[in-house]
## 1
Amino acid sequence: MTERPREQHTPTAGGELGTTAAVQHRRVEPDESRRASRHWWDLDADNYVAEHAADLGDVDLLWCPEGLRESDVQLLGPTPDLVGTTILEVGCGTAPVSRWLQSVGANAVGFDLSGGMLRHALRLNAGTGIDVPLVQADACRFPFADASFDFVVSAFGAIAFVARPEEVMAEAARVLRPGGRFVFSTNHPIRWIFPDSPSARDLQVHTSYFDPRAYLEVDDNDRPTYIETHRTIGQRVRDIVAAGLVLDDIIEPEWVPGRQVVWGQWSSDRAKWIPGTAIYAAHKPAR
């Protein structure tokens, strides 16, 4: 999971790491976003784990900063029904999701672009005794055979960081077996229009919901160091349908009562007014 800074007067993703010289908004190419994302997550892996590991857990499926956990909401269906299924996690990061799926009896595999994040995933595999298979790969080019998984899942992994998220949808459809399901969470697009602040006082629109340009942070040589892309709800639905999937649901989670966490722009204060996450559930039609 990650948060999306928007304006130069608000904190940038690379502010603490000293990688950001300027902010840009423009269209990006796939190779450009791939290089920037790999560089960023390798560089930020240690900081990210130090800041968020307690909330993400070592063996858990946390769908979003609002606090929805699969053990409570069962978006993949009844947990006992996952036993023996094959599940691919896209953008697994440190892989707590894949380890949780493995712990309830599924056969999970995780992949991520960042070697830095996978280094932590391997460490946690050893620490938990749950040895999830891990692969370093690009989210637009799944290194897996057609029709090889019952589920594809992603909890804020990869989809917001690729130039062409429709390619992720197509790859998910390709590797799913007929009747298989794709469930993923990502930034709710309404977040795009507000400053990156957890305070409800800052809910002042400053950019268009329909602005298709990516958000970039660049270094002193004008090289992108962090890229995040945007899709409206309608665009996301069209990407899913164009991949040959059937959309079953869009969930806009409310804040879990009593949860005392601030995660970038996500907070209980702001969650009273707008959604921060969208969870999409789709399936591949049976033949």
## 2
Amino acid sequence: MKRKRIFLTALLLAASMVSAGCSIPQKDTTKYKIAMITDTGGVNDQAFNQLAWEGLQKFSEESGAEVSYIESKQASDYVTNLDRATDGFNDLVWGTGFAMADPIATIAKLNPDILFALIDNRVPDAPFNVASVVFRAEEPSFVVGYIAGRTTQTDKVGYVGAVKTETSNQFEYGYVSGVAYAAQELGKEIEISVQMTESYADAAKAKAVASKMYSSGCDVIFHAAGGAGYGVIEAAKEWDKFVIGVDKDQSYLAPDNVLTSALKNVNVAIGIVSEMAMDGEEIGGQVLSYGMEEGCVGIPEENPNMDPAIYEDAMELMEQIQSGEVVPPKTEEEYEEFLKEGGMKDGVQ
């Protein structure tokens, strides 16, 4: 009799815990859940991470998906934060930025029931549950290079990058090829200075590099150096020269000095891929490439510092890129071949 009373008491206690909300959490199958892990720039970096988060927020509004983010303060946080995201009943976990490739591969292998996606890099030997999303960054870079070549009054332009990677090569060689394209069109040579800061965060070094370029005669510089690029923009303001922004329209940072920006519409791409995932498309293990054709790269519609005639020609060039008539180089080898085919004499320093 005593055993029966104890058993009954245990059942009543369990029932009371459930009614009081003390039960073990269960997945809400009515909501598709997405988490985003930022890189060290944080969600309010006014650049890549912020664009990605804005894209997820818009997707949430349109689809009803539940979205959240976890900020990484340092690179050592990536694995920890990705692991945290697997405990939140998320269906899709995004990692932003090239540096998260290895951490995503590590955590994805431990969580085969969750889909992971990396934006702006490829995951080497990607597990079956990881999608890599990359941009054809050479396309907008070619266009802004063309604009720089058409705009320069000194026939000297510059490029400031951060660290040499496959992605940074797309920016660099797309840009210098665009300058070459303009030089060929104008029938002259344009000197191009190229330098890397070896850091995505050292704005002071980027500013010093840009200042040296401006002092040597460059009147337009394109930066693709992440947060360090703010130093290039500051230098442009001090020297009263032109700078070309990256990833998003950066004209608000220096309204009188930003000539245009090479847009990488992370917000658009993250929405496209999130929808594919939510619809159940098998995207794991794939590399998804997006460019002008998909509306994921380009330049701003409004460029008040640009000659309207140059803008019109740039729009025509974008149409030629979309149609495949013009194929921007993305590697050093492709750039060298481009020069041989009539771009210009090698003026890169």
